[in-house]
Amino acid sequence: MKGWMTRFKAVMALTVMALILSGCGEPFLSTLQPRGEGAAMLLELIILSTVIMLFVFVVVMAIYIYVIIKFRQKKGQEDFIPKQTEGSHALETLWTVIPIILLLILAVPTVQYTFAFADVNTPEVSEEGEELDQIWIDVTGKQYWWHFEYEGLDVTTSQEIYIPTDRRVYLSMISDDVIHSFWVPSIQGKMDVNPTGNRNEMWLQADEEGVYWGKCAELCGPSHSLMDFKVIAVSPGEFEEWVEDMQGVTGEEEPETATAQAGQEIYEENCLSCHAVGSSPNKVGPNLTNFADRDKLAGVFDMTEENLFEWIDTKGEEMKPGNLMVDAPYDLNEEEINQVIEYLMTLSPSDVTPESADNGVYIDSDLSDLFPEEEEDADEESEEDDEVDEDEETDEETDENDEE
Known about the structure:
This protein has 404 residues and is of the alpha+beta class. The chain contains eight helices and twelve strands. It is elongated and about 100 Å long. Residues 258-348 form the Cytochrome c domain.
């Protein structure tokens, strides 16, 4: 009896601990605290599946306890054998049909949401009924970092995606090496990122400003758990400002201090072949256009000069095992590394940074300034339609005069 009580206490302690730990989590990295339409849909599925499981558990345990009490062995019945029931069609039908019904209840919304997450063809519509321009981002997964190119906007970055709130942003994803999985728990579900030209598409939407953590959810190598990135949701006006600032970067801007200028020369000689600054298509290594605005180095380490010095000096060999920078041919001394660091810390082209997502400032915009060509095309089409209508009216008037 004593041994049984000890085991019971241990099980109860583990159960209570599991319940407490399950409540731990941060809003920027929790599926239970959704901050976007996709995550809210997933939470509905989580709640539905949990309710179904609890229902099954309660029913089974109730029957189990009832049977134990009702049909327990009583005094004087040591040799009693109860009536054996075999081949009950009613019972077999019951425990076959009920699970099917429960699975259908769960399957229908799951299938609906799965197709909804991959629906990138249905355009968003404004309150006035006009179709909104789609923002597309080409996402490339690489061991062990993420690369982002904004289609049609001439903006390229890595490790951080800036998106406007209350607006869907569409992603076209592919891998340059192995299978990865793109996951931002607080605002959307997972999507595999495959190599060999197999692109997957999905959308993100953040309901409120914030910095949301993203993860690779597919084991992809030694530093899989360090393949983090950030989704920075800012107001539409701030997003528009950020895009315009990023578009203005050419990579040829000259720093103010002599040390940073020397660092730029060293960078161009040793680093530029892999790490682009500006909208260059080069993605051998992470794009560093807004490097100084990031609060994390390599996605996971605090952005300090000490960590940055160690990264450049050791090529991240121990900080991110398996990363390809260890094969880089450069060999810099301490002074040169410090000069490169000072240059890198000047790469801050915009006032819109991760801190902007938490400053409480909301700037509205319809983002139309980002798509001027499409606006012009629409105006030209409208003018052509008007001309066609005028020609048709003229032809009709001519026909009427001829008849007269």
